[in-house]
Amino acid sequence: MKIITSGITDVGCVRASNEDSLGLFPDLNLFVVADGMGGHAAGEVASQMAVEQIKAYIASNAKDNGSATPLSNEEKLSKAIAYANLQIFKTGSEDPKLNGMGTTVVALLSTDEESVVGFVGDSRLYLVRGGTIEQLTHDHSMVNEYVQKGLLSAEAAEHHPQKHVLSRAMGTGIDVAVETFTHLPEVGDTYLLCSDGLSNKLSALEMSHIIESSGDLDEAAKSLIQKAIQAGGEDNITVLLVSYVV
Q1: What is the CATH number of the domain that holds 120?
Q2: What is d(CA 26, CA 129) in angstroms, rounded to the nearest whole number?
Q3: Pick from 108, 106, 110: which is nearest to 244 by CA?
Q4: Which of 202, 178, 189, 190 is nearest to 240 (CA)?
Q5: What's the total number of domains in the chain?
Q6: Cβ–Cβ < 8 Å for 133, 127
Q7: Band (5; pLDDT cuts 50, 70, 90)
Q8: Res 227: pLDDT
């Protein structure tokens, strides 16, 4: 199998600046989407730092360093996100203009054998396989915690006024609880990484239809952005597609 990718980020129709960032690093098998938050340009700085620092950590640990117990890809990605979190927190603590900045992140470390996913916040990863779509991550949000506790239905959560309140984000503390898992890819699989500017505007079925009906990944990414803009585009929108082909 080989991996092909496409990614786009767009400011949307309302926001003055784009606080989303994305990273496509095929030489490292690394793909990242981050959605920043904070006053002035702080959100943009946080999301860019997340992408850059995760890449830097993965690059510095790309080869076996001779350790008796080398890191697994899942451990490597978890440590990369934790490292990036610390750098964001330190930068925000040292610069009053950036104080309190934070970001979500969803990252994919993909090889022929496995796909490792790491995430913090409410940026999502979906799997499109065989005509179906499945959300593989879950939101680190107050509303989703209500759903998990049985206090709120998934349908009600989609329209809850506090849907955007995060229970976990990068940069808000020295440490962050990074969630990771390993998924086994198959030929024909497409992973969709996105910020909530997309997932809040299009249903999973709409996203799946666009991806499967498009001629290639570039067309699919452009169509997803366009449809989210047509649906209002109040937020920044970021789409990153990773597909396994023969």
Answers
A1: 3.60.40.10
A2: 21
A3: 110
A4: 190
A5: 1
A6: yes
A7: very high
A8: 98
